[in-house]
What does this fold into?
Amino acid sequence: MRIVRGGHVRLVARRRLAAPMLACGVSGVLVTGASGFVGQPLVDELVRRGETVHAISTRHAPGQVDGVRWHRLDLADPGATAELLRKIAPERLLHLAWYVEHGRFWSAPENVLWVERSLQLLRAFVSAGGRRAVMLGTCAEYDWTQADAPFEETRSAIAPATLYGAAKDGLRRVATAYAEGAGCELAWGRLFFLYGPDEASGRLVVSVIRALLAGETIETTAGAQRRDFLHVEDVARAVAELLASEATGPVNVASGEAVPVAAVLDSIADAIGRPELVLRGARLEPEGDPPLLVADVTRLREEVGFRPGRSLDEGIAATIDSLRASGRAAT
It folds into this structure.
């Protein structure tokens, strides 16, 4: 038996950046955290768009792909970081790397280290002639005690309740002020609740899929909490669109739809054909769990031009198919 917890600005006028042309000295997009959960589909998306990608990872390159140059780099080394950026002189930056160990990242002291590393990276990027950067934040920057309406980037209260949220918010404030003074455009993508086949095994969607495929029962709450879910491939496409857009400042990256956790469980159970294994209501709601966490996606839709490419049911079905095809459904 497995126990699963409930799902827990401005616009500047400028010319759209041209596609990278190496002969003219523009060396494309630098992506940190490129081998991660969001990084891998994002690199794939950028390649499909014809971008030249410089992908950074502390691991070995996952495989050679046309249009991608892998660089093994530890961002904890500011000297090596600055040297690499001087060498490749990227015009644009997508910074995804962070400490993300499931269950620990909310309060891990590594969050403070990643604020330092991210600012060092941004300084090195600007010094190397970088023009536009996108960094990723989190919906945990918002005040979840006032989550009675969709979170809007410039009007909703910012009051993170965790070190993770505070570190992201602190980085946003300092990075924004620095970028404005340095003449670098900076957009801040606030992620909500993403899911997909490569997510951490303890997260809601994948853990339920694996349990039901293994024939195991799961105890859940009533699932009345409503959350904003977006498949990771749509997240990657949204971030790529944000990079290509003229938007600066915070932009919510989400579906804009408040879906009950119970509906997510039903979608998984129906797709697998094992609804009897979901013991809904067997657990109490966690104390203080917000009933609603959903994004206002007006900026994402109107300024960035993004709309999700698949429904929740389609995304869950694709996740199940991917796990089955890869043989990771039972891991």
